[in-house]
Amino acid sequence: MSTLSTGHGASTPAGGGSVPDTRRPGAARDSGRVDLMARLHEWTVTVDHKRLGILYVASGLFFFVIAGIQATLMRLQLVVPVNDFLTPDTFNRLFTMHGTTMVFLVGMPVLLGIANFLVPLMIGARDMAFPRLNAFGFWLFLFGGLLLYYSYIGSAGLYGAGSTPDAGWFMYAPLTTRSFSRGNATDYWILGIMVSGFGSMTTAVNLVATIFSMRCPGMTLMRMPLLVWMMIVVAVLILAVMPVLTAAQVMLLFDRSLGAHFFNPQQEGSALLWQHLFWFFGHPEVYILILPAFGFISEIIPVFSRKVIFGYPLMVAATVAICFISLGVWAHHMFVAGLSPFLNALFAASTFLISVPTGIKIFNWIGTMWGGRIRFDVPMLFATGFLALFVFGGLTGIMLAVVPFDWQLSDTYFVVGHFHYVLIGGTLFGIFGAIFYWFPKAFGCKLDERLGKWTFWIFLIGFTLTFFPMHISGMLGMPRRIYTYQPDRGWELWNLISTIGVPLQIAGVSILVWNIIRTLRRGEPCGDDPWDAWTLEWATTSPPPEWNFHEVPVCTSRRPLWDRKHPEDPDEHYE
Amino acid sequence: MLDGRARRILGGVARVPGVPGGLLALLLLVVGPLVVALTAGTAAADSSGPGAGASTTVCAPGVLGGPPTSGAGVTSIFGADSPPAESIRHLAWLVLGICAAIFVVVEALLFVAVVRFRRRKREAALAGEPEPTQLYGSNPIELAWTVVPLLIVFVLGLVTIRTIREVQLTEPPEGALRVQVIGHQWWWEYRFPDELGNGREVVTANELVVPVGRPVWLELESADVIHSWWVPRLAGKTDCIPGRTNVTWFKARRPGLYLGQCAEYCGTQHANMLLRVTAVEPDAFREWLEQQASPAVVDPAVDEGRRLFAGFACLNCHAIDGVSAGMFGPNLTHLASRETIGSGILPLTRDTLRAWIDDPQKLKIGCNMPSLKLDDRELDLITDYLLTLR
Ligand code: HEM
Ligand SMILES: [Cu+2]
Predict the structure, then answer these.
(1) Cβ-defined contact of A367 to B141 (cutoff 8 Å)
(2) Which member of B102, B149, B264 has the closest CB to residue A411?
(3) Probe ligand 1: pick from B318, B367, B379, max atoms within 8 Å of CB?
(4) Strands B207-211 and B274-280
(5) Average pLDDT for residues B53-74, to the nearest whole number?
(6) ipTM of the predicted structure?
(7) What residues of chain A lie within 8 A of the CB of B166, using their CB?
(8) What is the pTM of this model?
(9) From start to end of chain B, where are the E strands?
C-alpha cells in the first residue's frame, strides 16, 4: 500500500538522474541549445503515449483554428440578409468543411489524444498496449486530415481550380452521387475521413486492450477512474460504428467510381439507405464526442469540490446504458424522411430513454458539488459552465425527440443552436477544462489562472450571444445551411446578434492560445500534484518520465491518493 | 427516508448567502435568453410585415390580386394557421413548458450548489484545512432522480404519440384536394391531377394556390436530390426523396400568403428554393384552376417573341402548352399569372423577368438555367411574349 511514489521531490528517474528530461519547460535553457532537428525527429518517431497524446491535441487545436475561421466567414456572410460577401458555392463548402473538420479532425483527435495521454497514467500502466500501433493511429489521423484539406488544391484535378467537399458533413446521397457532385471533392471527403477513421479505430482497439489488460495491481474495474470508464465505452462505440461508416463510404465510392448503385435512386438505389447507415454511425458519434468530456468533468468536479464522486456505481451504469441505447436511436435524425408513425414513435421512445441516464449524470455531478468546498480554479469554472450549458443543450435535444415538434424544428437553426450547445458548451468546455487541469501534468507548470478566467468569461459570453439566438431564428422558420435569407422574416436581429458573438469567441480562444504559448516558454514549475488530486496520474512526477512510474503503483480504492493522504480514514471502507 | 448525512447536506439549500456578480451573470446569460425565446415566437407571429416583395408586383393576376392578408412574411412555427401546425404548436408550448421547468430546477440546484458551497478563503489560509464530509452516494436519492425523469419522459412519450397520430395521416382526409409536389434543384413543381374532372392535369411551378378550409393532401416526390417541403404556418416539413413518395397534409384556415422554403440541403441554391402557398376562397380557387387548365394564350401581337422562344434553347427545358414540351425547368404556360420568379426570390415585373432571361446566373448564381446571350431586341421580344402568358 505504501509503495506509491508520490509527493514533491520524487522526480529523480530510476536510472539515478542521468537522464536529462527535455520536456520540462526551461530544460532547453538549462542544458544549452538543443538541436531543433533532433527534437523534431524525436517527436516524429515517438511511440510514447504521452507525446502522442500531446501531438493529437496540438494537431486538433490547429484544425480547430482552421474550422473556426471557416465558421467566422459563414457568420459574416449571414450578418445581414441578401449579403453577397460569399458566393453560394463558397458558403456551402465552408459549412461542409467546418462541420467535417470539427467532428472528425478536432473533436475525435483531441478527445482521443487526451485519452491517450491519461488512460495509461490513470490505470498505473507503463504505456498503451500497442505503442507502435498508437503512433500509426496518430499519423493516419493526421494524414487523413491533410488529405481532406488537399482538396483545396487538388480536387478538380486537371479541370481547373480546386474545390472542396460541399454536400454537408452528413453527405446525403444522392447529392453525393456522380450525377450531382462532379469533380473529386466528394472523393476527397470519403478518403480523407476514411483514413483518419482507421486512425480512430486503431486507437480504440488500443484503449480496449490497454484498459482490460494493463491495469496496475488492485485496480479492479469498479475502481477505475470514471474517465477511464467513459473511455472504454467510447472505444467500444467507435469499434461498433466506425466500420459502418467506412463500409458506407466504400459503397459510395463504388457508386461514384465503379458505377455501382447502392445510393442512386435513378438506378434503383436507395437514398434512404445512406441516411440509415450514416446515422447508425452518426448518432453514437455524438456520444463519442460527449462521453470523454463527461469523463473530464467527472475527474475535475470531485477534486475541486473536495468530495468523492457521488454515486460512482450509478455513474458507471448510466455510461454503459448510454452506450447500448445510443445504438438504437439513429432514426431520430430521420423524423422528416417519412418513416411510418410506428417507427417514429419507436425512435422517439428510445431517444427519450437515453435522456434518463444522461440526466442521472447531471444530478450526480451536482450531488458531488453539494456539501463540498468548491475551489473555482479555471478547470472547475469550465466544468461548471459545462453543466450549466449542457443542461440547456440536453433539454433542447429532448424537444427534438418530440417527433411532431421535430417536424417543425429539424434542419433549422434551432438544431444548429442545440448541437452547438452540446458540442461547444459540452465537449469543448470539457476539453478546455481538461487542458487547464492536466496541463501541469503534461508540462510541469500551470496555465495562467487570470488569463484562464478571461478566456472563460469572454468565451462564455461570445458563445451565448452566438448560439442562443439561433434557437429563436429556428423557431421563426430559418432553415440551416442557407447562404442567404430574405429580409422581413424577423430573422435579421437574431442573425446580427449571432455574428456579434463571434469576435468575443475569437478573443477567448486567442487568450487561451497565448496562455499556452506563454506558459510553455516561461511557466513556473508547480510541483507534481498541484491540485491536491486523488487519481494515479498525480502519483508520478510532472511531467512523468517516459516509463510513467518509477515503481508500479498499487491501487487500494477508487481514490488511491486519498488513501495515502488520509491513512486514518481510507476510502476502501466505503466502497 | 434519507439517511442522516444526506439530510444534513440537503439542509444547505436553505441558506444561500450573497450572490457574487460573476455567478449572477452566468445565470442571467442562461435564463434571460430563455425568457426572450418563450415570448419571441408569438410576438413575431402577430406583427404582419409587408409581404416579401409582393406589393411591387405589376403583372399580378386578376384572381389573386391585392396585397396578401394576414401575417405575410412571417414563418414562425407559432403563427400556425392550419390543423397540423396548430397541433404541433399546442405540443410545442407544453414541451417548452416542461423543459423550461426542468431547466429552472436543475440550474437552480446548480446555482445553489455553486454559491452555497463556494470556498471563500484565500489559498494560503487553506493549508491545513480539513476535507468536507465525504458522501459516497445515497440509494434513495439516486433512485429518486432515476425514477422521476423516467416518469417525465413517459408523459412526454404519451403526448408525442398522441400528436403523431393526430398529425401524421396515412390516408387522405375526406374531400381533400390532391396535389403532387415535385422538388427540383432549385424550384418546385405542382401538379393537380384531374381536379377539374375533365381529364386535364394542371401543372404549375413555385406558387401553390389552395382553397381555404379544405384539406390539401400533398404527395411529395423529387426529380433529383432530397428536398423538404416546409411552410411552418401550415405544417411541419416532410422530405421529398427521389424514388419514393412521401405524404403530408394541411388545411389553411384563412386566406392569405404562407411562406416557407426548402428545408433539406439540396445543393448550390438551396437557400433560394423558396415556397409560397396562397390560400383563397373556394370560388377564386376554382377560377384560378380553370385558368391554369386553359391552353396558353396566343396573342398575335407578340408572335415574334413566341417564335424566338421556340427557336432558342428555351424549349428544351420549358414547357409552354402548344409551343414547347421541355420538362427540366418550370412550366411557363401561365407564367404571367404568377407573382414571383426564381422560386420566389424576386417579384415578377417586366424588368426582373427581362434581367432573369438575360442572365439568370446573375440573379440566382449557380442555378440550372444558362444565360443564352440574347441581344436586347430578342430579350424585349421574348419578355413581352412571356408577359402575355396569363
Ligand atoms: C431564353 C430561354 C429561356 C427562358 C425565356 C427562360 C425563362 C425562365 C423563367 C421565366 C424562369 C423562372 C420561372 C419561375 O420562377 O417560375 C426560369 C427558371 C428556370 N429555367 Fe429557364 N428559361 C430559358 C432557358 C432555360 C434553359 C435552356 C434551361 C435549362 C438548361 C432552363 C432551366 C431553368 C431552370 C432549372 C429554372 C429554375 C431556376 C431556379 O429557380 O433555380 N431555362 N426560366
Ligand atoms: Cu431543395
Answers:
(1) yes
(2) B264
(3) B318
(4) parallel
(5) 41
(6) 0.90
(7) 404
(8) 0.88
(9) 177-184, 187-192, 202-205, 207-211, 216-222, 227-231, 235-240, 246-250, 256-261, 274-280, 319-320, 324-325, 340-341, 346-347
